[in-house]
């Protein structure tokens, strides 16, 4: 399948690996920094290596940027359930990993960016409708002022869902645990200028305009900053590599300990 997402077009990837790689940033993103923090190598991308014979002891990244929990009539990317299915198929059907050996000592990261909520907000400006929809989203995952309120509701619902999962016998007896990576707190610390002082204007993106898009004459519809390291955001939504580095430096030792403790 030929990549069509903007993350496969310049200027995405200009810092690392020097060309577009499917990451919505100029370089490394959250998954990469989490792997580094755990002392693991960067995983292969399912989209580019899924059908190739590669050594999978370093893991596999099944993510498609901007994925939704539910099927979308607009976005053709596989939803989160389908991506989990890729893992099940690879691990079980193709017998790449052993359940008691490899998978028992592995980490699985499920990251949801809230894409389903955007359309819901546009169609439902009434705040009273939010809680029920948030519960619906979180249960399906199993685990501006409007956006701020939505984030708060989502996080509270997620905490309850994860606490419930950790109490289930099928996970508790095996020693499996679910841990929430609190990106929201780290983001807010930086945006409120309590963290990294590198970013003088943290809300100003490096790639301004319609990032990675061209007009009918082939002219760029965006402008780039001189130094991506000086910007926290790469585009209007996603952090730069330096932004993600700052986030994970804040999460730091406490996150590693929560993930590795027995």
Automatic annotation (TrEMBL):
One of its GO terms (biological process) is lipid catabolic process. Gene3D superfamilies: SGNH hydrolase. It comes from the Eukaryota. Keywords: Hydrolase, Lipid degradation, Lipid metabolism. GO terms for molecular function: hydrolase activity, acting on ester bonds. InterPro entries: GDSL, SGNH_hydro_sf. Belongs to the 'GDSL' lipolytic enzyme family. This is GDSL-like Lipase/Acylhydrolase superfamily protein. It comes from Arabidopsis thaliana (Mouse-ear cress).
């Amino acid at each position: 399948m030929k990549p069509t997402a903007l993350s496969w077009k310049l200027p995405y990837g200009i810092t690392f690996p020097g060309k577009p790689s499917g990451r919505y940033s100029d370089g490394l993103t959250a998954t990469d920094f989490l792997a580094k923090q755990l002392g693991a190598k960067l995983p292969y991308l399912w989209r580019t290596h899924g059908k190739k014979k590669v050594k999978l002891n370093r893991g596999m990244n099944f993510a498609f940027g901007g994925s939704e929990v539910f099927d979308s009539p607009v976005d053709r990317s596989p939803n989160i359930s389908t991506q989990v299915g890729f893992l099940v198929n690879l691990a079980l059907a193709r017998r790449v990993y052993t359940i008691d050996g490899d998978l028992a000592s592995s980490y699985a990261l499920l990251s949801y960016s809230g894409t389903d909520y955007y359309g819901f907000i546009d169609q439902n400006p009434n705040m009273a409708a939010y809680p029920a929809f948030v519960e619906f989203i979180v249960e399906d995952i199993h685990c501006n002022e409007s956006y701020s309120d939505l984030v708060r509701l989502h996080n509270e619902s997620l905490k309850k869902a994860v606490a419930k999962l950790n109490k289930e016998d099928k996970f508790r007896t095996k020693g499996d645990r679910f841990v929430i990576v609190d990106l929201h707190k780290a983001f807010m610390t930086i945006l409120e200028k309590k963290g990294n002082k590198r970013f003088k204007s943290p809300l100003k993106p490096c790639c301004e305009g319609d990032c990675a898009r061209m007009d009918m004459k082939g002219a760029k519809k965006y402008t780039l900053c001189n130094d991506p390291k000086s910007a926290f955001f790469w585009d209007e939504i996603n952090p730069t590599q330096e932004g993600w580095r700052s986030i994970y430096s804040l999460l730091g030792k406490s996150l590693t300990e929560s993930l590795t403790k027995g």
